[in-house]
Amino acid sequence: MKKSKKIRDWYALKKTLFFMRLTVLFLLIGIFQVSAVTGYSQQSRMTMSLKNTSLVEVLNEIENLSDYYFLYNQDLIDVDRKVSITVNDQKIDEVLNLLFEGTTVKYVIKDRQIILTNLNEETQSVQQQGDVRGTISSANGDPIPGATVVVKGTNNGTITDFDGKYTLTNVSPDAVLLVSFVGMQAQEVAVGGQSVVNVVLAEETIGIEEVVAVGYGVQKKSLVTGAISSVKAEDLQSVPVARADQAIQGRTAGVSVLSTSGSPGAGTKIRIRGVNSNGNSNPLFIVDGMKTGDINNIDPADIESMEVLKDAASAAIYGTEGANGVIIITTKSGAKGERAKISYDFQYGVQSSRSDMDLMNAEQYKQWMEESGAGTVTLDGTDTDWMDEVFESAPMQKHHVSYSAGTEKSSYMLSGSYFTQDGIVGGSKAKYDRYTARVNVKSNMNDWLEVGNNISFSHSKKKYVGEDDEYRSVVNSTLLIDPLTPVTYTGTPSNVQSLLDAGNTVLQDENGNYYGLPSYVTGEIANPIALLQTYHNYINQDKILGTAYATIKPFKGFSFTSRIGLDLTYQVQHSWAPKYYFSSENQNAQTTVDDTINKWYTWLWENFASYSFDVNDHSFTLLGGYSAQEYQAPDWTLHSGPMITEGDDFAYQGYTTSNENDRTGGGFVDQTMNSYFGRLSYDYKSRYLVEASVRRDAASVFPTNKRAAVFPAFSAGWVISEENFYNIPSVDYLKLRGSWGENGSKANLPGNEDKEFWVFGIQYPGADDVYQSGAEIDKLVNTDLRWERTQQLDIGIDLRAFAGKLNFSVDYYKKVTKDLIVSGSGPLSVGNDWPYVNGGDVTNKGLDFELGYKGSAGDFDYSVNLNLSTLDNEVTYLKVDAPVSGDNLRGYNLTWFEEGYPVWYFKGYKTNGIDPTTGDPIIVDTNDDDEITAADQTYIGDPHPDLLYGATFNCAYKGFDFNLFLQGTHGNDVFMGWFRSDRPFSNKPLFMFEDRWTADKTNASRPAANNTSDYVYRSDLMVSDGSYLRIKQIQLGYTLPKEWLSAAKIDRARVFVSMDDYFTFTKYEGLDPEAGSSTDNRQGVDRGIYPIAGKVLFGFSLNF
C-alpha cells in the first residue's frame, strides 16, 4: 500500500511554519532594536518644562531627550545663566530659538552636533581667533572618519567627516588640539597660528592595554593571570576559509585543529592541550555569550575576536563544560557615533589535489601479480590511471556584505554571506552551499540601561560521497582497484552480459556505456567512477544562534546583566540508493529511501552582576551569577523501498511501495543543568594580581545524589616591571603568573544512569523446546557515577620589549583528568550491558611558546609571529579489567585506550626488518615465549604529535601587502589502513612496488609481493611518519590609492591573489598526512581519506 504523501507534506509544513515563527520573532527583535537606533536620529521633536534652571542643565536635558550633543567654548558661552523654557512636541531648532532668544549666542546644527558660538565675542576677538581646518589620517594615508578633535581646556570640538576632514571655529593662535580615535594613539598638536593643521595618527601598539574576552566579561591583557591566546579580526581578514574554527589553525600555541576531511563542508576537530578523555574532548564554544557546539554557521568575516582559554583558571568559571578548554567568539558590531559603512568581499578559487602519490601502472601490476603467485596476467592495452580519473579541479566562491552604523547612543551591524564549494572528488556530488545572516544591535536607552541582541541564521546544503571507510568509499576504491579495469566498456562484454542475464543491474554512463568491473580485485572494491553514480546523499540544516540581553548600571562600577540565548538546529539527512551490482559483496537489489530528522535545541538563561571599585591603590572586581539551561534532541528515522522509479524527484517516503523491510524509529534526549558561579579579581597598582573563582553545577545526566559538583580555581600574577627596583629599559613589561584550577566534564554520558531499563520481546527456551516471550534488564544501574574532573597547573611568563615591538609568552602546563567515565566490566554470564563507571586517569603536559615582532623601516612595515607547543599524553590509570579497544579495522582492533600508553595508540606487530632469504617480515617476539601469536602485538605508533607549530610573516609597502602562513606537526604517526590482507590482488602504491623484496634485492625495506599475511598489514610496516609542514597561505594584495576611488565614493579597495594549502612537505606516503576523524579513537587512521585541496584564489574587498 502506498504511503500518504499528505503526512509528509504536513510535517514539512509544520517545520516551515515553526521556523517562520522563530525567524519572524528574532527579526522583529532585530528590527525593533534597529528602529530604536534610527529613531533618535530621525526624532527632532521634544517636550520639556524647566523653570529657573541653569543653561548647562537645559543643554544636558536636551542631550538626554535626544541624540544631539553640544560643543561650545565655556569662555564664550555663559552656561550658568538661569533660564525657563516650556516646549511641547517642538522641533530642535524651535527649542534653540526660544532658548537663545534675545542673546548673542548663535547655533549650527551639523548632523548630531550642535555647535554654539557668541556673536559679540567673535567680533571682538576676530584678530586673535580664527578657523582651523585639516585632515586626520592613518599612517598609510587613509582618512579617519569619526576622530575627535577638541581644543584643549575647552568644550570646543568636533568630529571628522567621511573624508577625515574637520573644521573648528574660534581657535586662538596658541591653542593646542587634542586628537583621538579608538585604536590609535592620541596626540596633542599645537596650532601655532596655522589655519590648516593635518594630523597623522599612529596605531596603538598592541600590548598591555589590549582587552581580551574572559568568562562573563572583559579584562585588560596586562591584568590577566591565566593562559589566554587571542586571534583578532585583522588576523582573519586574509584567511579565505569557510569555517571559523579553521581560521585558528596554526595561530595559537597549544591548540590542535585537525580537518576531519577535505570534503566540502567537512568539520574540524579541535583539541586544546591534548585529549583529556576516552569520551568527549571537544572545547566549549561561547558565541556572544551563548554556548554552542558548532560554529560552522558563523562567517569568519563577522568575527571581531576569538579568545582561547587554555588553563583551568581561565575556564573554571564555566565549570563542568570547561574541562577541554573554552573558545570565546565575539562578533563584530557597529560603533557609536559611526557613520554608515558598507563592505563587500568577494573570493573565487579553483581547487585541485596536491598529492604526489602514485599507484602501480598496468605493467607493474602485472609483474606484482605474477610474483605473488596469482598466475599469468594478460595485458589488453588498458592502463587506467584511477587517480587522474577520480580527482578533478573544482570551483569555490564566497560573497560577504555588511552594513554598520551608529548614533551617540546606539549601534548596529547587519551582514549576509554566501559560500559554495564543489569537491575535488565527486565534483557537484560533493558540494556544499551555505547562507548566513546576522543582526547585532546595541542601544543605550538612557544613562543606566543598555539592551541589545546578537542573532545569526544559517542555512546549509551538503551533498557528500563516501570516504575514509572500506565500504562504498570512492577514495578507498580509487587506491585499490586494478589499472587493468577500464572506466567504461565499448559494447557489452561477456561478464556484463552474464550479470544482466542473471537479473542484476550494471550501471551505465550518460552515453549508455557500461562501467568497467574489476576482474582481479574482489569484494566490495568497485569502479570509483561508477560508485559516484550510486551516491545521492544530502544534508540540509537550518540553525538559529543568538542572544538578547539587558544591562543596568545604577551606579558607578556596578552592572547587572540578564541574558537569554537560543541555539536551535533542524537537520534533515536524506539519501536514496539506486539498484546496482558491482560484486556479490557490493550490490543493491532494491531501491531504497532513508531519512533522518534531527532537532537540537538549547536555551540558556544567565543573570550575573559585577562590581568594580578602588580603595586607594587596591582595585577589586566582584562577579556573581546564576545560569540555567536545557538541551533537547528528538530524532526520527525512516526507511522504505522500493521506489516507484529512480530519481531525486521520486526519492520520498511517499513514493515507495511498502514491504516488510520498511521501518521507522526515533529517540529523545532531555538534559538540564543549573549553576551558580562567582569570581574575585584583585590587583595592587597593576603590580600584584590575584583572581579566584568557583562554580557549582548540577546536571540531570547524573544520578540524583551525584548531580552537583563544585569546581574552584585560583591564579596570581606579579608584574615585575612595575616594581621600583626594576631597571631593564629594553623590556617594557614583564609578568610572572601561575594558576591552578579544576573543571568538570560529563563526557558523552546520555543520562538516566540511576534508572533501570528493560528490553521486552526477548525469546527464552521453555519446556519442550517451546520459546516464550520475556524481558531482561538492558543495563545495570550505577548510582555512584560522578563527574570527570580535570585539574590543571599552569606557570607562565609574559614579556614585551623594545617599545612593544616584541611580544613573548611561555607556559608550562600539567593537566590531569581523573574519574574518567568508562564502561564497566564483569562476568559474561550475567548477559547485561555493564554500567558506566569512573575508572581512569589521563595526563597531558607540555610547553606553549608564542613570539611576535612588529617593526618598520621607512615605508616598509612588517610583522612576524611564531607559536610552538609540545605535548606528552598518557593514560596513567585504568580501573577496568582490560584495556578499551577503539577503531576496528576489518576485525582488527587497531587503536587502544590502555594504561601506560598514549590515548588511542596503535597496537600491532613489531618488525625487525625483512628476512633476506624469504622476503617475509621478521616479527619481534615481544613476550619471549618463542612463538608469534596475537599476544605479541604491542605499541607501534602514536597519532598525537609531540610538537605543533605555526608561523606568519606579513609585510606592506606603499599599498602592496604580502602574507605567508606556515603550519605543521612533528612526531605523529599515520596508519595506512587502506592496505588489505584480505584483498591481496588490489593495486598498491608505487613505493610498495619499488621497495619490495625480490631475489635480486634482498636488502629491501618492504616484503615480497607474495606476502599477504596479517603480520604485514597489522604491523609497523603500515605505520608512516605523519609529520608535515604545510604552507597554508601565500597571498599578495594591493590596496588602490585613494585618488583612484574618490570619484566612485569608495573609501577603500583591495585586490589579492592567494595560494592556500598548495605546498606540503612530509615523509608520509599516503594522500594526506592530516588524517583526521571526527572521533579521537580513529585519529591518524587513513582508510583512504578525502585529501585537503590546494586552492588558487582571487578576491577583492570594497569599503564604502
Automatic annotation (TrEMBL):
Pfam hit, one: STN
UniProt superkingdom: Bacteria
InterPro entries: Beta-barrel_TonB (IPR000531), Beta-barrel_TonB_sf (IPR036942), CarboxyPept-like_regulatory (IPR008969), Plug_dom (IPR012910), Plug_dom_sf (IPR037066), Secretin/TonB_short_N (IPR011662), TonB-dep_OMP_SusC/RagA (IPR023996), TonB-dep_OMP_SusC/RagA_CS (IPR023997)
Keywords: Cell outer membrane, Ion transport, Iron, Iron transport, Membrane, TonB box, Transmembrane, Transmembrane beta strand, Transport
Location(s) in or outside the cell: Cell outer membrane
Signal peptide: none
Membrane topology reported for the UniProt record: Multi-pass membrane protein
UniProt domain Secretin/TonB short N-terminal: residue ranges: 68-119
Record-level GO cellular component terms: cell outer membrane
Subcellular location, principal: membrane
GO biological process: iron ion transport
Similarity field: Belongs to the TonB-dependent receptor family.
Name of protein: TonB-linked SusC/RagA family outer membrane protein
Organism: Mangrovibacterium diazotrophicum
